[in-house]
């Protein structure tokens, strides 16, 4: 039996020495050009040219009154009102608007404030004067940042400037202008809510004036303050005349039994009875067909005067009732409008910075290095992928 010789490992061929090839040099050069150089340039600018900026912060929200009571501390904390998200969205848009920029420019001269650092010293972050209002608005949106918490309705405003005092002044001006805008919205809403009620009240007041003037004119023309009282007086006179007529008839009947027709007493009694009857007819005619004195010398029937007076009284009572209802409706509309009035509540007043927090130099340099490295890595991978496909 023959023994087989064990297998022996074959020696490996010596590897070729590694040399730095052109693609390696190109990769390193691209790393320097696309990563190291931009990062170094960003670091140089951040620490050598970029000016310090100070930040002032203010937090506020829009509240709507739930009651017409005075505002106290509990109201400001939210016990007496509720934050309005729609008003917050309006205010959020207003703070970024060109209108507010124009107003603050008129108040504080933003171009002067934001050119305290010359554009030659800091060409990236400084404002380049004079610029148009659109340029100023674009720069405003870089220096004034507003954050809206949609759940609570809280607005946080961060204002940047090259001095702490300027940042605080701009933040205070924004808060004041925002408060004025909210107050204007509240006034418009109150005016809209009470416009119809006010118009109804004005009409009711005018109708009441006309009704009272009509009664005054009636009294001046007829010289009668109250026709009802005058009727009562006339009825008293008529009753007295009728009583005298009855007495005269009795007296005439008694004389006729004891004296002749030519007796002077009978003649006198008949004359007295005729006078009383004529007077009764005159008084009766005053109610239906007679006349009463007036300023024009002509007369009107008492029945017509009473009808006119009663019509005027009905108009006056209706006007008074309409006025009372319109006044109540107007007071209710005013109370409701005031109950829904808006106001701006500042939870954090504009702060005064003690040190600069902008620009965030290390963060900007680190982000520059990260993104340039990612871009370089993508380019290198793409280049090697294309090379391997050949």
TrEMBL record:
<feature type="coiled-coil region">
    <location>
        <begin position="194"/>
        <end position="221"/>
    </location>
</feature>
<dbReference type="GO" id="GO:0005886">
    <property type="term" value="C:plasma membrane"/>
</dbReference>
<keyword id="KW-0175">Coiled coil</keyword>
<keyword id="KW-0812">Transmembrane</keyword>
<dbReference type="InterPro" id="IPR050445">
    <property type="entry name" value="Bact_polysacc_biosynth/exp"/>
</dbReference>
<keyword id="KW-0472">Membrane</keyword>
<dbReference type="GO" id="GO:0004713">
    <property type="term" value="F:protein tyrosine kinase activity"/>
</dbReference>
<keyword id="KW-1133">Transmembrane helix</keyword>
<feature type="transmembrane region" description="Helical">
    <location>
        <begin position="28"/>
        <end position="47"/>
    </location>
</feature>
<feature type="transmembrane region" description="Helical">
    <location>
        <begin position="364"/>
        <end position="386"/>
    </location>
</feature>
<protein>
    <submittedName>
        <fullName>Capsular polysaccharide transport system permease protein</fullName>
    </submittedName>
</protein>
């Amino acid at each position: 039996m023959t023994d087989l010789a064990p297998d022996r490992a074959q020696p490996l061929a010596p590897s070729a020495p590694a040399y730095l090839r052109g693609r390696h040099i190109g990769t390193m050069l691209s790393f320097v050009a696309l990563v190291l150089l931009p990062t170094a340039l960003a670091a140089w600018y951040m620490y050598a040219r970029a000016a310090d900026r100070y930040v002032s912060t203010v937090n506020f929200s829009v509240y709507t009154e739930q009651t017409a009571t005075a505002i106290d501390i509990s109201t400001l904390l939210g016990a007496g009102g509720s934050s309005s998200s729609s008003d917050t969205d309006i205010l959020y848009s207003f703070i970024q608007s060109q209108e507010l920029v124009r107003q603050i420019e008129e108040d504080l001269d933003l171009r002067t404030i934001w050119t305290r650092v010359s554009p030659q010293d800091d060409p990236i972050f400084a404002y380049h004067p004079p610029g148009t209002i659109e340029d100023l608005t674009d720069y405003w949106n870089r220096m004034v940042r507003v954050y809206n918490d949609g759940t609570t309705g809280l607005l946080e405003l961060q204002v940047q400037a090259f001095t702490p005092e300027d940042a605080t002044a701009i933040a205070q001006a924004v808060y004041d202008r925002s408060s004025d805008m909210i107050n204007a919205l509240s006034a418009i809403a109150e005016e809209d809510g009470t416009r119809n009620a006010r118009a109804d009240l004005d009409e009711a007041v005018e109708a009441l004036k006309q009704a009272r003037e009509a009664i005054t004119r009636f009294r001046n023309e007829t010289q009668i303050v109250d026709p009802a009282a005058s009727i009562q007086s006339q009825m008293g006179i008529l009753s007295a005349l009728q009583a005298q007529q009855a007495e005269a008839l009795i007296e005439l009947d008694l004389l006729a039994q004891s004296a002749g027709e030519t007796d002077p007493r009978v003649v006198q009694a008949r004359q007295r009875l005729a006078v009383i009857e004529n007077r009764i007819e005159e008084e009766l005619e005053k109610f239906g067909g007679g006349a009463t004195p007036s300023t024009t010398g002509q007369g009107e029937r008492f029945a017509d005067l009473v009808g006119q007076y009663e019509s005027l009284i009905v108009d006056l009572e209706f006007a008074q009732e309409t006025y009372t209802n319109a006044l109540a409706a107007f007071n209710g509309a005013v109370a409701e409008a005031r109950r829904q009035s808006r106001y701006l509540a500042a939870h954090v007043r504009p702060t005064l910075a003690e040190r600069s927090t902008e620009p965030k130099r290390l963060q900007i340099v680190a982000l520059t290095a990260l993104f340039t490295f990612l871009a370089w890595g993508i380019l290198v991978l793409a280049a090697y992928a294309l090379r391997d496909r050949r």
